[in-house]
Design goal:
There is one protein chain. This protein has helices spanning 3-25, 29-33, 47-69, 73-94, 98-119, 124-152. The termini are far apart. The protein has a single domain, classed as Up-down Bundle (Ferritin). The protein is globular, with a radius of gyration of 16 Å. α3 runs antiparallel to α4 (73-94). By secondary structure, it is an all-alpha fold. The protein is built from 6 helices and no strands. This is TspO/MBR family protein. Belongs to the TspO/BZRP family. InterPro entries: TspO/MBR-related_sf, TspO_MBR. It is a multi-pass membrane protein.
Length: 153
């Protein structure tokens, strides 16, 4: 198997596997169930499938960036956004720091937008792979801020 495909598998394991591991270790639980939810709160069953698809797309975008320039600034931005992504669940669901989680997700939005803007003219496919993620975390930030506002402000 060519090395570039081994690195694709590594990116898929990192993103999909890492996301699944973090998701299973930081479950919403009773605390989340007891929160007042905004009217647009999606059903719980939706999050797993959406994140699985998004993590696969994020992995491919990261891999495409990696094979182009593994040590470049774009790769650093990609790693920073995935690190923030993996930080959000424990901050929100385990520690219940909803306002800090909102700041994390807003930083994710900024980094993802920078990534898309920077890659757009170099690799449009990679840019398109990240757009659904940007839309979802935009929605998730609205949800996060609404949950904070309705319950803790």
């Amino acid at each position: 198997m060519p090395a570039k495909y081994i690195s694709l598998i590594a990116f898929l394991i990192l993103c999909v596997g890492g996301g699944a591991l973090i998701g299973t270790q930081n479950l919403p639980g009773e605390w989340y169930d007891g929160l007042t939810k905004p009217f647009f709160n999606p059903p719980s069953w939706l999050f797993g499938p959406v994140w699985t698809v998004l993590y696969a797309m994020i992995a491919v975008a990261g891999w495409r960036t990696w094979i182009r320039n593994a040590n470049g600034t774009l790769m650093k931005v990609w790693f920073a956004q995935i690190a923030l992504n993996f930080t959000w669940s424990p901050v929100f669901f385990t520690y219940h720091w909803t306002l800090f989680a909102a700041l994390i997700i807003l930083a994710m939005i900024v980094l993802t937008a920078i990534f898309i803007g920077s890659v757009w003219n170099k690799d449009r496919v990679t840019g398109w792979l990240m757009i659904p993620y940007l839309c979802w975390i935009g929605f998730a930030s609205l949800l996060n801020i609404s949950l904070w506002w309705l319950n803790f402000a």
